[in-house]
Amino acid sequence: MNRMELDFVPQTSRRMVIGWLLLAVALVLLGLELFYLENSLQPETDRLTAQINSQSQALRPTRVVQRFKKEDLEAMVRAQKDVSTALYLPWPDLFQFMDRASSKNLGLLSLEPDTAKGQLIVTAEARNSDAMLGFYHNMSASPMFRDVSLQSHTVNDTDPDHPIRFRLRAQWVIGK
């Protein structure tokens, strides 16, 4: 019968050493390849990342926070007060007076209120000077107005009726 030999500590063979060396060389080459790829692709990766960031910024809605200076806020409050004052003026009383004071010989062209100064500028056209002066006296006699003055008047010579266009300025007495 043949004799059996048991070897519990194997002897390293030359083939195993070569195998381990080849594995180590392959791992080193793989590491070098990965290092090369990462370094060669890094500029392209950085460029693409920057492009994505800029495009996402462009798509993101921008919130505009508007900060006002104290002077700007005060100006806005004054403008709001002016509008509020203009809305609460006695417009119906003014229009009723203008309707009563005008006649068939007089036509109102414009009313220009200046609420800040409390003034009213009336532009009208009269058939004759008597109609113009009658309107002037009606405004002067009204408690709604004071300091009524004739600003300008012109006669339209091109029209065969020769109407008189005039402007009156008055202080509008509000709330009295």
Task: Characterize the structure shown.
It is a single chain. This protein has 176 residues and is α+β, with helices and mostly antiparallel strands. It is built from four helices and four strands; from the N terminus they run αααββαββ. The chain has helices at residues 14-59, 70-87, 91-101, 129-141; strands at 106-114, 119-126, 145-155, 164-172. A hairpin with a 4-residue loop joins strand 1 and strand 2 (119-126).
How many separate helices? 4
Q: What name does CATH use for the topology of the domain at 89-172?
A: Gyrase A, domain 2
Q: Which segments are poorly predicted (pLDDT under 50) over 5 or more consecutive residues?
A: none
Query: Secondary-structure element sequence?
Result: HHHEEHEE
